[in-house]
């Protein structure tokens, strides 16, 4: 049997200094236990890693992009439209890329066995969505604005309202994870995850923009959130997926 092919993939410049958080951040207590204690080892990507499984339209359900219509009843909370473009470092659209989101409900609770704080679950809201970018690199979700929630990192700690995003290349090994926040959140100042990003401009790129033109009257608010995978305007990405 022939040995797996070791692909020579193109190399890209690293993100600008200060774009991503350090692996160990003093104010974020969980990093003391989670961050690597040994130097990272680069594993070459083989043909299997970059060619499968395929992430095409056949993998999506009809309502995967609309988190408000996945059950018989409507979820509680403020309906919002979240849309934007997935771009490369030169501003070109990244087409047919899988974008996933996951989030808490309007009361700030995840549908997860580990989330047991006393805020009610919503039987009509799972908090999970998927969409493919179009030829302009655009995606769109209809969902509910999430609530803040406590997380015990420090005294009276509450996470600002946020939505988790992941974007894929052609396979699961080509995955980037980030978070989207909402403008003027009063909890920004005390959140160590948000404030762990050294560069203020990079930090502010995690905050969505209210878009009145895309708001649907008497139906839904609208927010824009572009994701840039590299370059001087690169979005902030997590080096390892975080449960918070």
TrEMBL record:
Known EC number: 1.13.11.3
Keyword Zinc found: no
Keywords of the record: Dioxygenase, Oxidoreductase
Span list, region Disordered: 1-26
Gene Ontology terms, MF aspect: protocatechuate 3,4-dioxygenase activity
Compositionally biased tracts (Basic and acidic residues): 8-17
Keyword Oxidoreductase among record annotations: yes
A Pfam cross-reference name: PCDO_beta_N
Domain Intradiol ring-cleavage dioxygenases span(s) in chain numbering: 82-110
PANTHER family: DIOXYGENASE, PUTATIVE (AFU_ORTHOLOGUE AFUA_2G02910)-RELATED, INTRADIOL RING-CLEAVAGE DIOXYGENASES DOMAIN-CONTAINING PROTEIN
Family classification: Belongs to the intradiol ring-cleavage dioxygenase family.
Protein name: Protocatechuate 3,4-dioxygenase subunit beta
Protein species of origin: Amycolatopsis rhabdoformis
